[in-house]
Each structure stands twice: as structure tokens, then as C-alpha cells.
Amino acid sequence: MSVDTRDIFLEAAHFSPLAVAGQARAYGLHTDASHRFERGVDPRLAREAAERATALLLEITGGEAGPLIEAADESKLPDDREVVLRRTRLDQALDKVLPDDEVGEILERLGMSVERVDEGWRARVPSWRFDIAIEEDLIEEVARIHGYNQLPARHPRALLGPRPDNEARTPLSALRQRMVSRGYFEAVTYSFVAPDLQETLLPEAVSPVLANPISSDLSVMRASLFPGLVRALEHNLNRQQNRVRLFETGLVFRGELDDLDQVPMLGALICGSREPEGWSGGKEQVDFFDLKGDLESLIEMGGEAEAWRFEPGAHPALHPGQCARVMYRGQEAGWIGTLHPAVRARLGLKTDALLFEVRLDALTHGRVPAFKPLSRYPEVRRDLAFLVDAEQPVQALLDTLRAQAGEWLVEAHLFDVYQGKGVPEGRKSVALGLTWQHPSRTLNDDEINQLVDAIVEESRLHLGAELRA
């Protein structure tokens, strides 16, 4: 436009909020118009805006106005809305009876055309009040104009009984407190993650993609807690925090929107030294069994430790030799292991990290503790050292042992694993401690020897285990 300009063409248009929402962010172009249209503008305002702009031009510069050409598709514009306000519903919501004339006057002062009907009032909503669509909106407007301070304040009354407490469940607060007591800090991360990070950790994961993400690196719903914990680890390592112990609880989202499974999970991540820096602390780094011990501490809170198993498995984000599937009552409940070296290299991490993720419903499920009287009779202990294949899980040996040890076995635990001099190559020595105790009499050596013989024979037949001399 210059001093020689003689013809000016003005355009005024209305844009639907649904069509404009998110587009300014997608194009990186934020304007006053985008903010206004995203929040809603009167669809009938375009004609008035064009007339007003024309009037201002004529007043300032002079000239002659041309014809106003209007192109509108009425089928795409919002319909005129009529909302019925019932007298009974208004009295119930406000807990006060307002005169009919006052209610009608309030609605008219708000620019509505009001018609008295049998059940109350029928209000024709003006086009600029796109926030009024249902009866409750009219009630809110009447209360606002009448004055909230003029409405009676009455406390609700209800017969409330004591809330039942399921003693068989471990509260989430107790799990959090246990993690904190073991040196962890709770992390709270977004439920949205970067698609490339989730693809790196979980290449086969399927989760919803956001149509209007807050940023490009938070555009998919998380299918696991691992991405958020790994991102938090990167943040800490970049700030010279080399000893990291984090845990998080939250939902993960698996599947598409029409078949979405939202699963509450508890996850944890550790890296760095086993003990905090100090004159009495060593420099040993954390390993798989440090993290496994922390998870077993949570499992023991439910009182069903025997219902849990750690089985070898393969997870794309975890080291194939340091990874286990966590099983609860025969069903998969989660994963534990060391971050895969290839994944760690792809993410640019220079230190090993260990993670676990377990379903919360399994961790919180347990049983009510029951009293069992202490036996007054002595315990009998036997230590057995077996030679088994180096790849043989100790859990299989413990399961066989418990099946043959009888009903008076009170404890069976592993206290040594040895490979080296005196042990054939490809084998390992596993030492187990077994304790028996009868509630009403003293067990004799013959009874214990029979049980030990049955354990040794069953272990030899099914696991190829030999009793070490």
C-alpha cells in the first residue's frame, strides 16, 4: 500500500475452533487471531467487522464504499441454540426460589430472547455466547448475576460409614515409603514420550499417538515406564550426578485407542556406586542383584514371596545375559535387568543402568498375616552342596527341594555358589541350607536322613545334580 493506492479490498472471515486448534503450534506461527479463534469467536461477527473497518477507512481517508459480498455456508455455521431452564431444576440447584420476573430479566440482560413456558423459560442464546449450551449453563449465569453471596450456604448431609480396609493389600504409600527407605527418590515424568526413544527401548510397542502434542518429543503415550526413567537418568548424568536411584509409579498405555489397556506400574532405575560417597564406603558399582534385592524387598511386603518367580527371558531394552521375566502366580508381572549395551550406546550413556518394571496390582496384592505358635522343640539343620550345570537356575533346585523336604521344612536358602578349583568345567557348586522343626516333638536323625535322601535322588533324576563330597 502506498500514496498511489486507490482500491482497497477488505476480507473478514470466521474460522472454526476445531479447524484452527493446534495449527499455530504446528506451523510455529502464533498470532492474536490464532489465539482468539482457538478460543471461539462469534460466527456472525464477520459482517459487522467488515462494516466497521469500512467505516473507519471512510472516516480517516475518505472515498467511496463498494458493495459488501457475503459468502456463507449455513450448513457449516453453528445453529441457533434454544435452551430450556426448568423452574424445579433452578430452585434445586440454587436452594432458593427467585421471582419469575427476576429470572427472565437476568436472561434478557445477558442478550437472550426469553419465552415463558410451562416448565420454566426457553432462552434463545445469542451467537456470541457459544459457552452456553445446556441448562446448567443458564443456572450458572442466573446465580452469577443474582450474586453468589445472596445464595444460602447449607452443608450437605450424608450417612457415612467407616471405610473398609483391605488388610490383604499393601498400600501404595507403603511401597513408596519402602523405596525411599532404600535410598530411592521418586520421579514424576510425563505420560508422553518421544517416539524415537520409545522405538529404541520398545521397538514392538503399540501406544496411542497424540493428535495435538505439546511438543514433538512428547507425541506418543508411554507403553512403559522405562523411557521416562531413562530420560531422567540422562538429565542427572548431564549434571554430574553419577549415583542415581529413581522410582516411579503411574499408568502405561498399550494398544490403540479403540482397544487401550491402561496398566498401573511401578518402575525403578539405579546406576553408579553401591554406597554413597564416604570414608567408610567402597567403590563397588551396583549390579543385577542389588536391584533384585530391592524388588524382593517390595515383594516381601505382600507376604506371598513364594508366589513370585524370576525366569530367564529376552527383552529388547535389556541385556540378554542379565535379564529376567518377573512372574506372579504363573503370569508375567514385569521385567528386570541391565540396560542393553546397544541401547545404551544409541542413547549416548556412558554408564551401566539397571531397571525393573512390575505391575502394581501384583505388588499390592497379598494375604492377611496369620499367627503361628512358636515350636518349643529344637531345629534340625542340614547343609547340602550340589554340583549342577553352570546354566542351571537355582530356583529349579529349590523347587525340587521343597517338594521333597516334607511339611516340617521351615527354611531353605542359598548361601554359596562356587566355580573354580575342584569343580568340573561347565558345572557349579550350589550350597543350600535346610532347616526342619516339628511343632510338637523332636525330629530324629532317621527322619531327616530319609528326607535328605529323597531330595538328593529327586535332584539327580530331574536336574542331573550330584551331591558334592
TrEMBL record:
Keyword RNA-binding: yes
InterPro entries for this protein: aa-tRNA-synth_II/BPL/LPL, B3/B4_tRNA-bd, DNA-bd_dom_put_sf, Fdx_antiC-bd, Fdx_antiC-bd_sf, Phe-tRNA-ligase_IIc_bsu, Phe-tRNA-ligase_IIc_bsu_bact, Phe-tRNA_synthase-like_B3/B4
Domain annotation B5: ranges: 78-153
Keywords for this protein: Aminoacyl-tRNA synthetase, ATP-binding, Cytoplasm, Ligase, Magnesium, Metal-binding, Nucleotide-binding, Protein biosynthesis, RNA-binding, tRNA-binding
Catalysed reactions, as listed in the record: tRNA(Phe) + L-phenylalanine + ATP = L-phenylalanyl-tRNA(Phe) + AMP + diphosphate + H(+)
UniProt GO BP: phenylalanyl-tRNA aminoacylation
Superkingdom field: Bacteria
Predominant location: cytoplasm
SUPFAM superfamilies reported for this sequence: Anticodon-binding domain of PheRS (SSF54991), Class II aaRS and biotin synthetases (SSF55681), PheT/TilS domain (SSF56037), Putative DNA-binding domain (SSF46955)
GO CC terms, sorted: phenylalanine-tRNA ligase complex
Subcellular location field: Cytoplasm
Pfam families for the chain: B3_4, B5, FDX-ACB, tRNA_synthFbeta
EC number: 6.1.1.20
Required co-factors: Mg(2+)
Coiled-coil portions: none
UniProt-listed SMART domains: B5, FDX-ACB
Class of the enzyme per the UniProt entry, highest EC level: ligase
GO molecular function list: ATP binding; magnesium ion binding; phenylalanine-tRNA ligase activity; tRNA binding
NCBIfam families named in the record: pheT_bact (TIGR00472)
Complex formation: Tetramer of two alpha and two beta subunits.
Family per similarity comment: Belongs to the phenylalanyl-tRNA synthetase beta subunit family. Type 1 subfamily.
Protein name: Phenylalanine--tRNA ligase beta subunit
Annotated source species: Halomonas elongata
